[in-house]
TrEMBL record:
Top-rank taxon, per record: Bacteria
Official protein name in the record: Methyltransferase domain-containing protein
PANTHER family recorded: CYCLOPROPANE-FATTY-ACYL-PHOSPHOLIPID SYNTHASE, FATTY ACID C-METHYL TRANSFERASE
Domain Methyltransferase span(s) in chain numbering: 42-139
Cross-referenced InterPro entries: CFA/CMAS, Methyltransf_25, SAM-dependent_MTases_sf
Organism whose genome encodes this protein: Candidatus Nomurabacteria bacterium GW2011_GWB1_47_6
Length: 256
């Protein structure tokens, strides 16, 4: 089942309070502290509506942004045009497992758990192989994912999120199931908007997402000519991963 289709119409509203500036500062910190080569061009995999990419472009980077959802890319295009960054950001409709851009990049990133959507080993291998093929020697690959020991220690729960704007509301119901034998979480999203008590739009999607251990990550990276440099909690570059925090960042480098 395709994901981020009808759900895309609600995406930016649902994540309007996400601290994109802090995440972009983290990306820039990783580049400054860890990249052995100058970074001018960035490959963004699973870019969504380009909230990270727009901020990076405003900081002088040229960004090539990929996503397989046409609706997410349509929203991204509108935001890029509004920010007058068409010369800084290039959009591509592509699957992160299957693309060829005939170009090498200084830095690659997959933000907001794009890795988690690569639910089989063949999916993950295909994505990492593509990343490796598109990075310059020494180029960094930054991504976030869910840390397996933390997920198992603190399993997911059902949640309700509500966004209000005047007389309008967006409500998202999230039901999550832990699939132990697959190292996955099945997430059912039911999202609808209301004006007063009248339902004006609705979306239901099921997302399957993978959680990963460090040995798994290390093995997959090494098999695709990438080397694990750093694993840290979300936005905490100097800290060590913890069994109490789901969100983990990985910094890897293309082998020279």
């Amino acid at each position: 089942m395709p994901v981020f289709q009808a759900y895309s119409q609600f995406y930016d509203r649902l994540y309007e309070k996400k601290d994109y500036p802090a995440e972009v500062e983290f990306i820039r910190s990783v580049i400054k502290k860890m990249s052995p080569i100058p970074v001018k061009n960035i490959l963004s995999l699973g870019c969504g509506t380009c909230s990270h990419d727009i901020l990076l472009a405003k900081n002088g980077y040229h960004v090539t942004s990929l996503d397989q959802s046409t609706t997410m890319l349509s929203n991204a295009q509108k935001k890029i045009k509004s920010a007058r960054l068409q010369k800084k950001i290039t959009l591509h409709h592509a699957d992160v497992r299957r693309f060829s851009l005939n170009k090498k990049y200084d830095f690659a990133m997959a933000m907001f758990n794009v890795i988690g959507y690569q639910v089989t080993n063949s999916d993950l291998t295909a994505m990492l192989q593509n990343v490796s093929n598109h990075l310059k020697p020494g180029g960094l690959f930054l991504f976030d994912c869910w840390y397996a020991p933390a997920v198992i220690a603190d399993p997911p729960t059902d949640r309700i999120k509500e966004i209000k704007a005047g007389k309008s509301r967006i409500i998202r119901l999230t039901q999550s199931s832990l699939l132990h034998r697959k190292n996955q979480i099945q997430i059912k999203f039911h999202v609808f908007s209301l004006t007063g008590n009248k339902k004006t739009a609705e979306s239901e999607e099921i997302h399957h997402m993978r959680y990963l251990s460090l040995p798994e990550i290390d093995g997959h990276l090494e098999a695709n000519n990438l080397h694990l440099l750093k694993a840290c909690p979300f936005l905490k570059l100097e800290a060590e991963v913890s069994d109490s925090e789901w969100d983990m960042f990985i910094v890897a480098a293309k082998k020279k």
